[in-house]
Amino acid sequence: MKTTNFNLLKWLCSIVMVAMGFSSCKDAEPDDIYFAYGTPTCDYKISGVVKNEKYKPIPGINVVFQARKGGIMQDVLVMETDKDGKFETDYFDSEDIYITEIKFIDIDGEENYGDFEEKSIRAWGMTRNQVEEGDGDWYSGKFDLYDEIRLKKKPVEDTTEPEAPAEEEGNEETEE
Fold first, then answer.
1. Residue 175 in domain
2. Is 149 exposed, middle or buried (0-12, 13-18, 19+ CB in 10 A)?
3. How buried is 25 (Cβ within 10 angstroms: 0-12 exposed, 13-18 middle, 19+ buried)?
4. Is residue 174 over pLDDT 60?
5. pLDDT beyond 90 at 56
6. Range of the domain at 68
7. How many other C-beta atoms are found inside a 10 Å radius of the C-beta of residue 54?
8. What's the whole-number mean pLDDT along residues 115-126?
9. Between the chain's N and C termini, which has fewer beta carbons within 10 Å?
10. pLDDT digit string, tens, across residues 31-40
11. Beta bridge mates, 69
């Protein structure tokens, strides 16, 4: 009995859903009907400037954009900051933006104001500004993402070897 009632309920729900689908198109003209299946999308341009702790721009920093593809973080784009410490990409699509991590890596050591620690940020945490409206349907427009990244200097490692303890004089044991 329960199975029969359940099957009847499924059948009724199917009929109602079909009727609702047809009724939503009753006033549409053939030229007005279009299909928009999928996921809402938008485009992003990512830019910023990399500075040291004293707010001086740092040229020559590797900027590595990573995205998780197939469960593995992969480099999508690698670029370097210019002489003013700036970087800028072309537009990324919204599929990558939620999973994109950006790493800032000092590759030149002591050149360009010192040796800096690596830093990572998520693209989604950057300041967002909409620069182009979407179409009102599935496309939401274009956004600029911007951030000012400050890198800390790596701690200076002590490369000198520790001195051996000096032997004290007069502590030698003598046999009598």
1. no
2. buried
3. exposed
4. no
5. yes
6. 47-150
7. 8
8. 89
9. C
10. 555 555 667 7
11. 72
Residue 162 has pLDDT above 90, yes or no: no
Domain count, the chain: 1
The CATH code of the domain that includes 128 is: 2.60.40
pLDDT tens for residues 15-31? 776 665 554 555 555 55
Phi-psi region of 46 (alpha: psi -120 to 50; beta: other; left: phi over 0): beta
Alpha carbon of 70 to those of 27, 30, 67, 73, 96: distances in Å?
44, 41, 10, 8, 13
Q: How many helices (H) and strands (E) does the chain have?
A: 2, 8
Give yes or no for residue 60 having a pLDDT over 80: yes
Residue with tokens 């999308």: 41
Q: Which residues, in sequence order, are CB contacts of 124 under 8 Å at separation 6+?
A: 97, 98, 100
Is 17 within the bounds of a domain?
no
Residue 153 has pLDDT above 80, yes or no: yes
Structure tokens at 116: 């800096």
Kindly state the tokens that stand for 121. 């940020």
Adjacent-strand bridge partners of 50: 149
Residue type, 15: I
For the chain, where are the alpha helices, taking DSSP H only? 2-24, 94-97
* Alpha-carbon span 117 to 115, nearest angstrom: 7
